[in-house]
Amino acid sequence: MKLLHVDSSILGAHSVSRQLTADIVAKWCENHPDTTVEHLDLAVNAPNHFSADAIAIKGIAQPEPTEAQRAENALSEKLVSQFLASDVIVIGAPFYNFSIPTQLKAWIDRLAQPGRTFKYTEKGPVGLAGGKTVIVASTRGGMYANSEGGQAMEHQESYLKVVMGFFGITDVRIVRAEGLAMGEDAKNQALSTAKADMEQVTA
Length: 203
Description:
Radius of gyration: 18 Å
CATH superfamily: Flavodoxin domain
Shape: globular
Number of domains: 1
């Protein structure tokens, strides 16, 4: 079994999402000792934002690709191949300005490739990357999960569920720690809740 451990927080050792992904991966490996782990740190090795060069080779009639286009295509192929080869993906997704880090979005943009992770049919899009388990370590400074207003402002977990579903992945599990910026008691409660969730999602 192959597990891809993805971090995207820019906070390094101060990051709660990094703490959670490390704990999730350790717990998963404890419960599934046949697992091999590969780590992708998007804050350290962030792909370029999606550009005309990145999409140029994909299905667009054109002359010979440029050197820049070849380099961008090679990066996209490396990332999507790594993703497709993984059985389990653990994603650290902190809540930045109501959404996910741009580094994480740039990675997802490289994965969204027709013929690799999805295809279009006469009946609409069909995901091609099914059968995987995705575990999201979701961290938030405020509280969003327990109110309609909060859920309407949240484009982090909801986005990741939608895009993974688009890729055909229906097993998306959430380990959430929210209220982290609302005082020590709230933070401790959030981490305690996340730890309990971790036990369930790694079984």
